[in-house]
Design a protein that fits this description.
The complex is a heterodimer of chains A (116) and B (109).
Chain A lengths: L3 E4 L2 E4 L5 E7 L5 E7 L5 E8 L5 E2 L10 E5 L2 E6 L8 E11 L2 E6 L3 E5 L1
Parallel strand pairs in A: 2-11
Antiparallel strand pairs in A: 1-3, 3-8, 4-5, 4-9, 5-6, 7-8, 9-10, 9-11
Chain B lengths: L3 E3 L4 E4 L4 E7 L7 E6 L6 E6 L3 E4 L2 E6 L4 E6 L8 E8 L5 E3 L3 E6 L1
Parallel strand pairs in B: 2-11
Antiparallel strand pairs in B: 1-3, 3-8, 4-5, 4-9, 6-7, 7-8, 9-10, 9-11
Classes of the chains: A mainly beta (116), B mainly beta (109).
């Protein structure tokens, strides 16, 4: 499977500031995804990032709050804007691999964000 | 019915025990199913994919019951290192993956 890295691995930020999280993949992938995992919760999809088009956001997530870039097939960024303590969470990027009817998702190590 | 539902546990079992987790799903059109393992403070890692009636990999067996819309994960001969949270993942109505809340397993010596 693809090797996925994320930067930063963790950060502590003040409310009102913004943080950009980077996701790098060691191979070209079409589909990249950004998830959030709040403390004690399971994963929630924020958006799907495809190269060459606008990201597709899930219900409850908007571009102004979580702008996403996807400049090429190996890289994406997620920005958490105007942060509040409720944004404290783990943010994970994932990629989809496979073919035909068999696709699987693999995750980066995550970015642990604490907003004070 | 929730899109994906799991018993959160925790399941506390002794080493060597056999343990099974169930997961129910609502989207009857789902064709693929996944079990992920997530260790504390780590990312989920794909444990097993299920595209037909089931899958087996060593001590781990996943079985699918389409009529009742549930999948199970069976772990035989539990090891201490099996302690983790196991996430059931199913494509939802829009095709996006829906993650269950996870079932926590604690294997004790």
């Amino acid at each position: 499977s693809a090797v996925i890295s994320q930067k930063p691995s963790r950060d502590i930020c003040q409310r009102g500031t913004s943080l950009t999280i980077q996701c790098q993949v060691d191979s070209q992938v079409t589909m990249m995804f950004w998830y959030r995992q709040q403390p004690g919760q399971s994963l929630t999809l924020i958006a799907t990032a495809n190269q060459g088009s606008e990201a597709t956001y899930e219900s409850g997530f908007v571009i102004d709050k979580f702008p996403i870039s996807r400049p090429n097939l190996t890289f994406s960024t997620l920005t958490v804007s105007n942060m509040s303590p409720e944004d404290s969470s783990i943010y994970l990027c994932s990629v989809e691999e496979g073919g035909g009817s068999s696709y699987e998702q693999y995750f980066g190590p995550g970015t642990r964000l604490t907003v004070t | 019915r929730k899109e994906v539902e799991q018993d959160p546990g925790p399941f506390n079992v002794p080493e060597g025990a056999t343990v099974a987790f169930n997961c129910t799903y609502s989207n009857s059109a789902s064709q693929s199913f996944f079990w992920y393992r997530q260790d504390c403070r780590k990312e989920p890692k794909l444990l097993m994919s299920v595209y037909s009636s089931g899958n087996e990999d060593g001590r781990f067996t996943a079985q699918l019951n389409r009529a009742s819309q549930y999948i199970s994960l069976l772990i035989r001969d539990s090891k201490l290192s099996d302690s983790a949270t196991y996430l059931c993942v199913v494509p939802g109505n829009t095709g996006k993956l829906i993650f269950g809340q996870g079932t926590t397993l604690q294997v004790k010596p």
